[in-house]
Amino acid sequence: MIGCSRITYQRTRTRKIPAGGAFLRGALIILSQEVNRSSQEVNRSSVVNRKTKETDISLELNIDSNGKYEINTGITMFDHLLAQIAQHGRFGITLSATGDDQHHLVEDVAICMGKALNEALGEKRGIIRMGDATVSMDDALVTVAVDINGRGYPVLEDLPFSENDMFGFPTDLIRHFLESFAIEARLNLHAKILYGVNDHHKAEALFKALGRALDTATRIDERISGELPTTKEFLEG
């Protein structure tokens, strides 16, 4: 049967075969464990396509991957930042996106990534749910915390950038990306740049921290055997 393990036994001088009822109970326990394990071994991936008058986006996201990515938005710095989420979140991301301007493109990519993550997580059974990371990059230190609770709520307390142009990428779009992503992914997202001088370092550390926090939060916790990680027995979204 699907999900069942083959159970064999033999008599030995040191161990007796359990009585019929006890043996059956043991077999059922093993079967239950195998079923729970199989229920968690699902393909946690999603495909999102979004085409409007402003943007055309195709995205494939795989949660249980090795961090490999193919990202092309036409904005070099944005591609670089998104790659940090893939690499340090161990997500497989294939993304192709075009748009009429950077604002629309960044916003719609965030929407697609949030939707893809939420869809790939499904019912969210068995996940750790919460994760955080503090990441340094030379002069910069950034902290990010997430809670995949079904409620999109971004709290971006302090994201200071000295310039609004980082290699042709407006830094104010970073906040907009994070806000849109958190809302569509239906998760709490707290982020703060603790300090730093170089805008590139601050931004890159921020996206690395987001990737690592998401990596922790989306992992399967085998101890809860596919249960929802909440005392309410219900998660929004």
Q: What does this protein look like?
A:
The protein is α/β, with parallel strands linked by helices and about 240 residues long. The chain has one domain: Imidazole glycerol phosphate dehydratase, domain 1 (Ribosomal Protein S5, domain 2). Helix content is about 40%, strand content about 25%. It has five helices and eight strands; from the N terminus they run αβββαβαβββαβα. The strands form two sheets. Strands 1-2-4-3 form a four-stranded mixed sheet, with helices on one face. A four-stranded mixed sheet has the order 5-6-8-7, covered by helices on one side. α3 runs parallel beside α4. It is globular. It starts with 19 loop residues before the first helix and ends in a 19-residue tail after the last helix. The model is unreliable at about 1-15 (pLDDT under 50).
